[in-house]
Amino acid sequence: MPYSWLLAKFKQIGLDTYTHNFTLNYPLGKLQKFSGKNVYGILRAARAESTESVILSVPYRPPLSIHETTAPGIAIMLAFAKFAKKEKYWAKDIIFLVSEHEQLGIQAWLEAYHGISVGKKGILNAGDMRGRAGAIQAAINLELHTPEIGEMDIKIEGLNGQLPNLDLFNLATRMCAKEGIPHTFKNRASRRYSDPLKDWKYTFRTMMSMIATQATGIPNGNHGLFYRFGIQALTLEGFPNSKTKVGFVTIGRILEGTFRSLNNLLERFHQSFFFYLLPASDRYVSIGLYMVAVATLVATLFIKAYAKWCQLHQSSDTEEIETNETQPVDESGDHGPVTRDSLSREQWKEKLKTDIRKPTQGAQVDLSHICTVFVTSHLVGFALKELPMYFAKIGNAYGYSTEGSIYTGLAGASLLTAIKWEIYSSVFQCIMFLWQSIVECCIFHSPCCCFQQDADFVQLFKKHFGYVYIHFS
Length: 473
What we know:
Layout: H1 3-13, E1 16-26, E2 32-43, E3 52-59, H2 71-86, E4 93-99, H3 102-114, E5 124-125, E6 135-144, E7 151-155, H4 166-178, E8 183-185, E9 188-189, H5 196-216, E10 232-239, H6 248-263, E11 276-280, E12 283-286, H7 287-325, H8 345-355, H9 367-397, H10 402-419, H11 421-443, H12 447-453, H13 455-464
Parallel strand pairs: 3-4, 3-6, 6-10, 7-8
Antiparallel strand pairs: 1-2, 1-5, 2-4, 7-10, 8-9, 11-12
Helix pairs in contact: 2-6, 4-6, 9-10, 11-12, 11-13
């Protein structure tokens, strides 16, 4: 990145200019360190006391980058900063940020700006920041690949599928439409077909493309990292088009209109939706429509629980009826209340044998199965979090790449889990039975008596570990 040139340009415009250094300690494979530097300038608001601010960011991409160049975006940012410096109506500070290393630079800058560390300590050293503005209300990430663009694609998907407030998206689409620039969403223009089926297919593909991007949990632009800090953001990406060509003046009008609208905000975005689906850039599906299907899926759990509760009560009523039928009949022939003197010793023994019996099959609750699913799900989540680091170290020791080692290790672990699931389940059930027996020993019995009476555990242990001979004396 040409740090000196950018600093000189920001100072020439009259901005408060700063640099921000950060370091990444690569957590996978060999110990490596990557350093970077962000350059930013702050335009102080003439009509406020630096209590609120908005951001215009552009990622710097060197000539050898695998991504398309963003040099035209940096040029339009400098031109807009020079124009905004002359105006006196700004009520919010404007931060002009040029970040390095794509999303890594944005993440480090946001952590340093807010003075917190989001990830694991020791991985990303965000460094210190000397210059700050007010609380950030919104951010626009600009990515222009050519000086003359033909269409503007609007990106909104963020980290873990988060979305900005719908008002910010509508603002970007309205400004593009006002200046006559064709705007797209998921690189698909908003079209209308006379055939309802064809129109539905087109919008459905657009919506499913959005859902697929959200399902990955990976942001499709630098804007996606602002959401975790409560900042509404989106990316404007310009592409060339042979049919339509607009220059810097039109793009500057879009930026001016967008930032003047954000400048007029009296409070944070809150009125519109944060949960929605977009079948087109001018149509949306509200959360009130698609949450019905989600609620129906969740309702099945409650229906199953209610059915189980009714089954338990039904089995309890059945047992009560059977008990009343087996009660002894007094001399008058009626089923009266059983008193201590109405039954003989042998009749009392028979009554106890009838009343005290095992619950029905429907009333039994298999706690071992529930605990198996519960513990296994947590262990799988913990393994997915910790194992990639060890897979990468093992792979690098044998000369394999980090990505290949992680993918191969996770695939092997998944295959091993699928093959050996029955063994893991059996071992866990034996442990659960053993733990239950120990608890009963401590509360009710002596240790030697417990294992003599716990025949279920012995049978289960012999079933899965028949090669081991266990003798309980």
